[in-house]
Automatic annotation (TrEMBL):
Organism: Acacia auriculiformis x Acacia mangium
Keyword entries, A-Z: Metal-binding, Oxidoreductase, Zinc
Protein name according to UniProt: Cinnamyl alcohol dehydrogenase
Annotated PANTHER family: ALDEHYDE REDUCTASE
Record keyword Metal-binding present: yes
Stored InterPro entries: ADH-like_C, ADH-like_N, ADH_Zn_CS, CAD-like, ER, GroES-like_sf, NAD(P)-bd_dom_sf
Recorded family membership: Belongs to the zinc-containing alcohol dehydrogenase family.
Cofactor list: Zn(2+)
GO biological process assignments: lignin biosynthetic process
PROSITE patterns: ADH_ZINC (PS00059)
């Protein structure tokens, strides 16, 4: 096995300030230990939360910052205690790279809710070094936060599953919304929304996409297989599906009224919030009381759920809809993501990019 302790440098693309412009950056990886897996990054998805972080939307950004948390790569070395992974295997790493291991969340295998979780970038690791993400040649990740990619799955398609995919799978699984025949709504058809349609359909649900305009109707119905499409500003269409949905997965990442969507839920229906929104949301209490409805949230998923979701995805023969880009296109891709101009997830071919030069 051999030990991988010691200092290593790598090159990634980092934001230096809240303009969010990324450029090549050479940095030291954190100190390694016996539980660590040293990964050569092949692909990394681009997520809406990467935008929030590089632009300091949440007021907590530290620079230089290498984003990217949907990482698929190859194991190139392992620490002496690593038993789950071997050199040459294809593995994935997501948003969380550490937790306390002792709290209720950690002991219940939902380490994403640990109060001391460590983010894979824009955080500080236990050795005091800043964590950096997957827009880089290599990463070091504790084996407990690495998943094996099932054989036969194409690695570039797996990248978006490590955040967007498990973000949808986790609440459907946790809230008992897996039975076939349920009626679900997917609000917003971006990276998470497209995963929502695919996963809910694969579970046998009747899926209605709710969007702000007609423009994604053909894609939703024909490419993704949604059963119905409703424009949220069209009162007649909204009225038609009032009191009909078991759940709505709300992926909209900007402030929006909740009441129009609460009215679509059946008794005991759930509105599950997925978008990172830093302004207060509003609703009046009878909207919830008079149908015993729930407004809840869910945050990514655990390592265990990620493994389950990957098996589910493979078993159902699903595929992600991605647009592959090289690292020299990253700033343009982020600009397009901000305008929702991607169908439906960008994936960076990190291994196939020249990381250390401006092209």
């Amino acid at each position: 096995m051999g030990s991988i302790e010691g200092e290593r440098t790598t090159v990634g693309w980092a934001a230096r300030d809240p303009t969010g412009i990324l450029s090549p950056y050479t940095f030291n990886l954190r100190n390694t230990g016996p539980d660590d897996v040293y990964i050569k990054v092949h692909y990394c998805g681009i997520c809406h939360s990467d935008l929030h972080q590089i632009k300091n939307d949440l007021g907590m950004s530290n620079y230089p910052m290498v984003p990217g948390h949907e990482v698929v790569g190859e194991v190139i070395e392992v620490g002496s205690n690593v038993t789950k992974f071997k050199v040459g295997e294809v593995v994935g790493a997501g948003l969380i790279v550490g937790s306390c291991r002792n709290c209720r969340a950690c002991k219940s295998d939902i380490e994403q809710y640990c109060g001391k979780k460590i983010w894979n970038y824009n955080d500080v690791y236990t050795d005091g070094k800043p964590t950096q993400g997957g827009f880089a040649e290599t990463m070091i990740v504790d084996q407990n936060f690495v998943v094996k990619i099932p054989e036969g799955m194409s690695p570039e398609q797996v990248a978006p599953l490590l955040c967007a995919g498990v973000t949808v799978y986790s609440p459907l699984s946790h809230f008992g919304l897996r039975d076939s025949g349920l009626r679900g709504g997917i609000l917003g058809l971006g990276g998470v929304g497209h995963m929502g349609v695919k996963i809910a359909k694969a579970m046998g649900h009747h899926v209605t996409v709710i969007s702000s305009s007609e423009k994604k109707k053909k894609e939703a119905m024909e490419d993704l297989g949604a059963d119905d499409y409703v424009v949220s500003s069209d009162e007649t269409q909204m009225q038609k599906i009032a009191d009909s949905l078991d759940y709505i997965i709300d992926t909209v990442p900007v402030g929006h009224p909740l009441e129009p969507y609460l009215s679509l839920l059946k008794i005991d229906g759930k509105l599950i919030l997925m978008g990172v929104i830093n302004t207060p949301l509003q609703f009046v209490s009878p909207m919830v009381m008079l149908g015993r409805k729930t407004i809840t949230g869910s945050f990514i998923g655990s390592i265990k759920e990620t493994e389950e979701m990957l098996e589910f995805w493979k078993e159902k023969g699903l595929s992600s809809m991605i647009e592959m880009v090289k690292m020299d296109y990253i700033n343009k891709a982020l600009e397009r993501l901000e305008k929702n101009d991607v169908r439906y997830r960008f994936v960076v071919d990190v291994a196939g990019s020249k990381l250390d030069d401006h092209q």
